[in-house]
Amino acid sequence: MAIIKVKTGGITADAITDALIADDVVGTEHLTANEVDTTALGADAVTGAQLADDAVNSEHYTDGSVDTAHIADANVTTAKIAADAITAAKIADDAISEEHLDVTAITGHTAETSIADGDTLLIHDASASALRKMTKENFVSGIGGSDAIVYAQTNTATSCADETDTKITLDNELIDTAGLFADSRFTVTSGYAGKYLIIFQLSFNYTAVRFKINPTIKVSNTTVAYGQDFTSKNSNHTMVVGVSIIKDLSANDYVEFFGRQDSGGNKSNNTGIYTNASITKL
Protein backbone atom coordinates (compact mmCIF):
# COMPACT_ATOMS: atom_id res chain seq x y z
CA MET A 1 0.00 0.00 0.00
CA ALA A 2 1.32 3.35 -0.97
CA ILE A 3 1.45 6.04 1.75
CA ILE A 4 -0.02 9.37 0.76
CA LYS A 5 1.32 12.39 2.61
CA VAL A 6 -1.22 15.10 3.29
CA LYS A 7 0.07 18.53 4.05
CA THR A 8 -1.75 20.87 6.39
CA GLY A 9 -2.47 23.11 3.44
CA GLY A 10 -4.52 20.31 1.94
CA ILE A 11 -6.81 19.91 4.96
CA THR A 12 -9.89 22.05 5.00
CA ALA A 13 -11.05 23.86 8.15
CA ASP A 14 -12.66 21.57 10.75
CA ALA A 15 -11.91 18.52 8.59
CA ILE A 16 -10.26 16.62 11.45
CA THR A 17 -13.05 15.55 13.77
CA ASP A 18 -12.98 13.65 17.09
CA ALA A 19 -13.37 10.40 15.21
CA LEU A 20 -10.17 11.00 13.28
CA ILE A 21 -8.04 11.75 16.36
CA ALA A 22 -6.53 8.79 18.17
CA ASP A 23 -6.94 8.58 21.96
CA ASP A 24 -4.35 10.38 24.06
CA VAL A 25 -2.49 11.97 21.15
CA VAL A 26 -3.35 15.64 21.89
CA GLY A 27 -0.92 17.10 24.45
CA THR A 28 -0.34 20.58 25.74
CA GLU A 29 1.94 21.41 22.82
CA HIS A 30 -1.06 21.15 20.49
CA LEU A 31 -3.08 23.76 22.45
CA THR A 32 -2.77 27.46 21.86
CA ALA A 33 -3.29 30.02 24.60
CA ASN A 34 -6.91 30.35 25.83
CA GLU A 35 -7.94 27.19 23.91
CA VAL A 36 -9.32 25.54 27.11
CA ASP A 37 -12.25 27.47 28.68
CA THR A 38 -14.61 26.64 31.56
CA THR A 39 -17.08 24.86 29.26
CA ALA A 40 -14.34 22.37 28.37
CA LEU A 41 -13.73 21.44 32.00
CA GLY A 42 -15.76 18.73 33.67
CA ALA A 43 -17.29 19.16 37.10
CA ASP A 44 -14.63 18.84 39.83
CA ALA A 45 -11.97 18.44 37.14
CA VAL A 46 -9.65 21.01 38.74
CA THR A 47 -8.27 19.51 41.96
CA GLY A 48 -5.83 20.90 44.46
CA ALA A 49 -2.97 19.32 42.46
CA GLN A 50 -3.87 21.49 39.46
CA LEU A 51 -3.74 24.75 41.47
CA ALA A 52 -0.49 26.61 41.99
CA ASP A 53 0.40 27.66 45.52
CA ASP A 54 -1.14 31.01 46.51
CA ALA A 55 -3.15 31.12 43.26
CA VAL A 56 -6.61 31.35 44.87
CA ASN A 57 -7.56 34.68 46.44
CA SER A 58 -10.76 36.49 47.39
CA GLU A 59 -11.78 37.19 43.76
CA HIS A 60 -12.21 33.42 43.16
CA TYR A 61 -14.67 32.91 46.07
CA THR A 62 -18.42 33.24 45.84
CA ASP A 63 -20.36 34.44 48.89
CA GLY A 64 -20.84 31.65 51.38
CA SER A 65 -18.47 29.27 49.58
CA VAL A 66 -16.01 29.13 52.50
CA ASP A 67 -17.46 27.53 55.66
CA THR A 68 -15.90 26.05 58.78
CA ALA A 69 -15.46 22.67 57.06
CA HIS A 70 -12.89 24.27 54.73
CA ILE A 71 -10.90 26.04 57.44
CA ALA A 72 -8.17 24.02 59.11
CA ASP A 73 -7.39 24.32 62.82
CA ALA A 74 -5.20 27.33 63.69
CA ASN A 75 -5.78 28.92 60.27
CA VAL A 76 -7.70 31.83 61.85
CA THR A 77 -5.25 34.01 63.73
CA THR A 78 -5.63 37.36 65.46
CA ALA A 79 -4.08 39.01 62.41
CA LYS A 80 -7.05 37.79 60.32
CA ILE A 81 -9.64 39.43 62.66
CA ALA A 82 -10.51 43.05 62.00
CA ALA A 83 -10.66 45.55 64.86
CA ASP A 84 -14.00 45.41 66.75
CA ALA A 85 -15.07 42.41 64.65
CA ILE A 86 -15.90 40.29 67.71
CA THR A 87 -19.16 41.63 69.16
CA ALA A 88 -21.01 40.61 72.33
CA ALA A 89 -23.14 38.23 70.26
CA LYS A 90 -20.00 36.25 69.33
CA ILE A 91 -18.86 35.77 72.95
CA ALA A 92 -20.26 32.76 74.80
CA ASP A 93 -21.77 33.19 78.26
CA ASP A 94 -19.24 32.80 81.10
CA ALA A 95 -16.37 32.82 78.58
CA ILE A 96 -14.52 35.85 79.98
CA SER A 97 -12.42 35.18 83.08
CA GLU A 98 -9.72 37.10 84.92
CA GLU A 99 -7.05 36.15 82.35
CA HIS A 100 -8.93 38.17 79.71
CA LEU A 101 -9.27 41.33 81.83
CA ASP A 102 -6.80 44.15 81.77
CA VAL A 103 -6.24 46.24 84.90
CA THR A 104 -7.85 49.16 83.08
CA ALA A 105 -11.18 47.37 83.49
CA ILE A 106 -11.02 48.97 86.96
CA THR A 107 -8.34 51.63 86.80
CA GLY A 108 -9.71 53.10 83.59
CA HIS A 109 -12.94 54.28 85.23
CA THR A 110 -13.61 57.67 86.74
CA ALA A 111 -12.36 57.83 90.34
CA GLU A 112 -14.93 58.23 93.14
CA THR A 113 -14.04 59.60 96.56
CA SER A 114 -17.20 58.75 98.50
CA ILE A 115 -19.78 55.98 98.60
CA ALA A 116 -23.51 56.19 99.28
CA ASP A 117 -25.70 53.48 100.78
CA GLY A 118 -27.31 52.80 97.38
CA ASP A 119 -24.01 52.42 95.50
CA THR A 120 -23.26 48.86 94.38
CA LEU A 121 -20.22 46.60 94.71
CA LEU A 122 -19.39 43.44 92.75
CA ILE A 123 -18.92 40.32 94.89
CA HIS A 124 -18.61 36.57 94.39
CA ASP A 125 -21.41 34.59 96.03
CA ALA A 126 -19.69 31.38 97.14
CA SER A 127 -22.99 29.56 97.79
CA ALA A 128 -24.21 30.17 94.24
CA SER A 129 -20.74 30.20 92.60
CA ALA A 130 -21.78 33.34 90.76
CA LEU A 131 -21.13 37.05 90.65
CA ARG A 132 -23.63 39.23 92.50
CA LYS A 133 -24.08 42.94 93.09
CA MET A 134 -24.54 44.30 96.61
CA THR A 135 -25.30 47.77 97.89
CA LYS A 136 -22.87 49.51 100.20
CA GLU A 137 -25.62 49.50 102.84
CA ASN A 138 -25.94 45.71 102.80
CA PHE A 139 -22.19 45.19 102.46
CA VAL A 140 -21.39 47.24 105.55
CA SER A 141 -24.20 45.60 107.50
CA GLY A 142 -22.92 42.16 106.52
CA ILE A 143 -19.29 42.65 107.52
CA GLY A 144 -20.03 44.51 110.72
CA GLY A 145 -17.09 46.44 112.17
CA SER A 146 -16.86 49.56 114.31
CA ASP A 147 -18.36 51.91 111.77
CA ALA A 148 -20.64 53.45 114.41
CA ILE A 149 -19.01 54.62 117.65
CA VAL A 150 -20.43 57.07 120.18
CA TYR A 151 -18.97 58.47 123.38
CA ALA A 152 -20.83 61.24 125.21
CA GLN A 153 -20.63 62.87 128.63
CA THR A 154 -22.94 65.07 130.68
CA ASN A 155 -22.25 68.80 130.52
CA THR A 156 -25.60 69.86 131.93
CA ALA A 157 -26.70 67.96 135.03
CA THR A 158 -30.15 66.35 135.05
CA SER A 159 -32.38 66.86 138.08
CA CYS A 160 -33.86 63.48 139.01
CA ALA A 161 -36.98 63.35 141.18
CA ASP A 162 -37.06 60.89 144.07
CA GLU A 163 -37.80 57.29 142.97
CA THR A 164 -38.48 58.38 139.38
CA ASP A 165 -36.87 57.10 136.19
CA THR A 166 -35.43 60.21 134.52
CA LYS A 167 -33.76 60.47 131.12
CA ILE A 168 -30.16 61.64 131.64
CA THR A 169 -28.84 64.44 129.47
CA LEU A 170 -25.63 63.53 127.60
CA ASP A 171 -24.96 66.77 125.77
CA ASN A 172 -21.20 66.59 125.24
CA GLU A 173 -20.69 64.34 122.20
CA LEU A 174 -16.98 63.62 122.04
CA ILE A 175 -17.26 60.89 119.38
CA ASP A 176 -20.09 60.21 116.94
CA THR A 177 -18.59 58.58 113.85
CA ALA A 178 -21.87 57.92 112.03
CA GLY A 179 -23.87 60.92 113.19
CA LEU A 180 -26.45 58.72 114.92
CA PHE A 181 -26.48 60.45 118.34
CA ALA A 182 -28.63 63.53 118.96
CA ASP A 183 -30.60 64.91 121.93
CA SER A 184 -29.12 62.23 124.21
CA ARG A 185 -30.56 59.50 121.96
CA PHE A 186 -28.80 57.01 119.67
CA THR A 187 -30.96 56.04 116.68
CA VAL A 188 -30.11 53.15 114.36
CA THR A 189 -30.62 54.12 110.73
CA SER A 190 -30.74 51.93 107.64
CA GLY A 191 -27.40 50.22 107.11
CA TYR A 192 -26.34 50.28 110.76
CA ALA A 193 -28.28 47.35 112.17
CA GLY A 194 -26.23 44.79 114.09
CA LYS A 195 -24.72 43.94 117.48
CA TYR A 196 -23.73 46.80 119.76
CA LEU A 197 -21.82 47.08 123.01
CA ILE A 198 -23.63 49.69 125.14
CA ILE A 199 -22.13 51.05 128.39
CA PHE A 200 -23.67 53.62 130.75
CA GLN A 201 -22.12 55.14 133.88
CA LEU A 202 -24.14 57.30 136.33
CA SER A 203 -22.86 59.30 139.29
CA PHE A 204 -24.36 61.19 142.28
CA ASN A 205 -22.91 62.77 145.42
CA TYR A 206 -24.27 61.58 148.79
CA THR A 207 -23.72 62.32 152.48
CA ALA A 208 -25.50 59.32 154.02
CA VAL A 209 -25.59 55.51 153.79
CA ARG A 210 -28.16 53.20 152.19
CA PHE A 211 -29.23 55.45 149.36
CA LYS A 212 -29.37 53.71 145.99
CA ILE A 213 -28.40 54.61 142.43
CA ASN A 214 -29.99 52.91 139.42
CA PRO A 215 -28.53 53.44 135.94
CA THR A 216 -30.78 52.03 133.19
CA ILE A 217 -30.33 51.41 129.45
CA LYS A 218 -33.50 51.43 127.37
CA VAL A 219 -34.00 50.41 123.74
CA SER A 220 -37.09 51.92 122.14
CA ASN A 221 -38.38 52.73 125.66
CA THR A 222 -37.93 49.15 126.91
CA THR A 223 -35.44 48.45 129.71
CA VAL A 224 -32.70 46.10 128.51
CA ALA A 225 -30.06 46.67 131.23
CA TYR A 226 -30.38 47.77 134.86
CA GLY A 227 -27.81 48.43 137.56
CA GLN A 228 -28.01 49.19 141.28
CA ASP A 229 -25.69 50.08 144.13
CA PHE A 230 -26.03 51.67 147.60
CA THR A 231 -24.11 54.42 149.34
CA SER A 232 -21.84 53.27 152.14
CA LYS A 233 -20.58 56.42 153.92
CA ASN A 234 -22.18 59.06 156.13
CA SER A 235 -19.80 61.77 154.93
CA ASN A 236 -19.89 63.45 151.54
CA HIS A 237 -18.78 61.06 148.82
CA THR A 238 -19.20 60.35 145.11
CA MET A 239 -21.03 57.21 143.99
CA VAL A 240 -20.45 55.84 140.46
CA VAL A 241 -22.50 52.90 139.14
CA GLY A 242 -22.17 51.34 135.68
CA VAL A 243 -24.20 48.97 133.56
CA SER A 244 -23.53 47.40 130.14
CA ILE A 245 -25.04 45.06 127.58
CA ILE A 246 -24.39 43.59 124.14
CA LYS A 247 -27.59 44.01 122.17
CA ASP A 248 -28.87 43.35 118.64
CA LEU A 249 -30.28 46.58 117.26
CA SER A 250 -32.46 46.90 114.18
CA ALA A 251 -33.13 49.90 111.95
CA ASN A 252 -35.23 52.54 113.77
CA ASP A 253 -34.34 51.19 117.23
CA TYR A 254 -33.20 53.95 119.59
CA VAL A 255 -31.15 53.87 122.78
CA GLU A 256 -31.61 56.20 125.76
CA PHE A 257 -30.13 56.35 129.26
CA PHE A 258 -32.07 56.82 132.50
CA GLY A 259 -31.20 57.39 136.14
CA ARG A 260 -33.06 56.85 139.41
CA GLN A 261 -32.27 57.75 143.02
CA ASP A 262 -34.06 57.60 146.41
CA SER A 263 -32.59 60.47 148.42
CA GLY A 264 -36.05 61.67 149.40
CA GLY A 265 -35.96 64.70 147.07
CA ASN A 266 -34.60 65.96 143.79
CA LYS A 267 -30.96 65.21 143.05
CA SER A 268 -28.76 66.15 140.07
CA ASN A 269 -26.22 63.78 138.62
CA ASN A 270 -22.52 64.55 138.48
CA THR A 271 -21.19 65.81 135.12
CA GLY A 272 -18.07 65.31 132.97
CA ILE A 273 -16.28 62.01 133.21
CA TYR A 274 -18.53 60.83 136.05
CA THR A 275 -21.67 60.41 133.94
CA ASN A 276 -21.14 59.11 130.41
CA ALA A 277 -22.24 56.58 127.81
CA SER A 278 -20.49 54.72 124.99
CA ILE A 279 -22.00 52.76 122.10
CA THR A 280 -19.87 50.64 119.76
CA LYS A 281 -21.02 48.57 116.79
CA LEU A 282 -19.32 45.18 116.90
Quick summary:
The chain has 282 residues and is mainly beta. Helix content is 4%, strand content 33%.
Feature tags:
282 residues, mainly beta, Jelly Rolls, seven-stranded antiparallel sheet, 2 helices, 16 strands, rod-shaped
Low-confidence stretches: none
* Largest sheet features: 7 strands, antiparallel
End-to-end gap: 127 Å
Helix share, percent? under 10%
CATH class of the domain at 149-281: Mainly Beta
Overall morphology: rod-shaped
CATH fold-level topology of the domain at 149-281: Jelly Rolls
Q: How much is the radius of gyration in Å?
A: 48 Å
Q: Count of DSSP E strands?
A: 16
Strand composition percent = 25-35%
CATH architecture of the domain at 149-281: Sandwich
What features would you describe in this structure?
The structure is a single chain. By secondary structure, this protein is mainly beta. Among the domains are: 115-144, no CATH class; 149-281, Jelly Rolls, CATH 2.60.120. The protein is built from two helices and 16 strands. Strands 5, 7, 8, 10, 11, 12 and 14 form a seven-stranded antiparallel beta sheet that branches. It has a five-stranded antiparallel beta sheet with strand order 6-3-16-9-13, with no helix packed on it. Strand 10 (212-219) and strand 11 (222-226) form a beta hairpin. The longest helix has 8 residues, at 136-143. It is rod-shaped, with a radius of gyration of 48 Å. The mean pLDDT is 86.
